[in-house]
Design a protein that fits this description.
Elements lengths: L1 H35 L3 E10 L5 E12 L2 E3 L1 H11 L2 H21 L5 E5 L2 H5 L3 H12 L6 E5 L8 H13 L3 E7 L5 H7 L4 E4 L1 H4 L6 H16 L3 E4 L5 H10 L3 E2 L10 H4 L13
Parallel strand pairs: 2-4, 4-5, 5-6, 6-7, 7-8, 8-9
Antiparallel strand pairs: 1-2, 1-9, 2-3
The structure holds ligand C2E and magnesium ion (MG) (3 copies).
Keywords: Membrane, Transmembrane, Transmembrane helix
Protein name: EAL domain-containing protein
């Protein structure tokens, strides 16, 4: 009897698994086609100086319309990772973003570019060369590029990845820890990785104005980051009271829907500060 029940449970489980495998296979095929047919796009979300509201950088975020349905990156990046498609996809993202931001900088707009890295991408033997090539072809100075990595990156193959990221940093590229504070060993990573920036996870920022503990933790992270000489960016700012508290804590940079949503490239143009015309007197 117990065996029967158990056996039944295995079958149900297997059916679910089967559906999931099919879904992922279909998605993998669609991703492959999307890559060949150039169906991906980039949006850019501004990172601003919280004191002056000046845009200091833009973060490139990949967008995929699967037919008429928008698929959030978190729903397809896992499949792209598992199938290895993340490598060519990431190469396209990097090349496209460097080219676009280099063009904005050519109109004497001093902005940086942040690009997210996937864990698998870093293990690709082409990784360092791809980034060096994207910089060279676009003319973007290495110091204008910040690569965002998450803490789970160092769970496996840590030595190899640290070595590659260090090689890039030696070229002048900057590194950021994304979603800071959510990994199980946030502080340890600061010793292992040569980072320039931490991005405080939205789960801290969301509690500002209502949760004393989260406010205290946020304040502590801001201070820690600054004491280590890092740029600290607060992510996910949605409400004015969060912005107020972050300013009061001395957090200098921020990102979030309140400040600016991710936007299409042609809308980024409109954020460009007006050029000084004629001679200054
Ligand atoms: P992330 O790098 O932490 O990016 C921030 C995410 O938060 C973005 O979601 C952004 O649209 C969203 N966001 C920004 N401000 C707010 C806010 O005020 N409130 C809320 N609720 N959300 C906000 P998105 O574009 O869906 O990306 C999700 C994640 O997918 C990213 O998290 C990143 O880990 C990954 N991702 C996105 N684009 C790329 C890419 O080009 N390459 C790689 N490897 N990963 C990417
Ligand atoms: Mg990011
Ligand atoms: Mg983040
Ligand atoms: Mg994230």
């Amino acid at each position: 009897r117990a065996k029967e029940l158990g056996g039944h449970r295995v079958e149900v489980f297997a059916a679910h698994m089967h559906a999931d495998v099919m879904r992922r296979l279909e998605m993998a095929a669609d991703l492959q086609r999307a890559l060949m047919e150039n169906q991906f796009a980039l949006e850019y979300q501004p990172v601003v100086d919280l004191a002056t509201s000046r845009v200091t950088a833009v973060e490139a975020l990949v967008r995929w319309w699967r037919g008429s349905a928008f698929v959030p990156p978190e729903d397809f990046l896992g499949v792209a990772e598992d199938t290895g498609l993340i490598v060519p996809l990431s190469e396209w993202i990097l090349t496209e973003a460097c080219r676009e931001v280099a063009a904005w900088r050519a109109s004497s707009w001093d902005i940086g570019l942040n690009v997210n890295l996937s864990p698998r991408q870093i293990t690709s033997p082409r990784f360092v060369d791809t980034i060096a090539a994207a910089l060279k072809e676009s003319g973007l100075p290495p110091s204008a590029l910040t690569l965002e990595v998450t803490e789970d990156l160092l769970v496996e193959d840590a030595d190899e990845r640290i070595e590659r990221l260090s090689a890039l940093r030696a070229l002048g590229v900057r590194l950021a820890i994304d979603d800071f504070g959510t990994g199980y060993a946030s502080l340890a990573y600061l010793r292992q990785l040569p980072v320039d920036m931490i991005k405080i996870d939205p789960s801290f920022v969301s509690g500002l104005g209502s949760d004393e503990t989260l406010a205290l933790l946020t304040r502590t992270i801001v201070r820690l980051g600054h004491d280590l000489g890092l740029v600290v960016v607060a992510e996910g700012i949605e409400r004015p009271e969060q912005l107020e508290q972050l300013r009061e804590m001395g957090c200098t940079r921020g990102q979030g829907y309140l400040v600016a949503r991710p936007m299409a490239p042609r809308r980024v143009d409109t954020l460009m500060p007006p050029k000084l015309s004629g001679t200054l007197r």
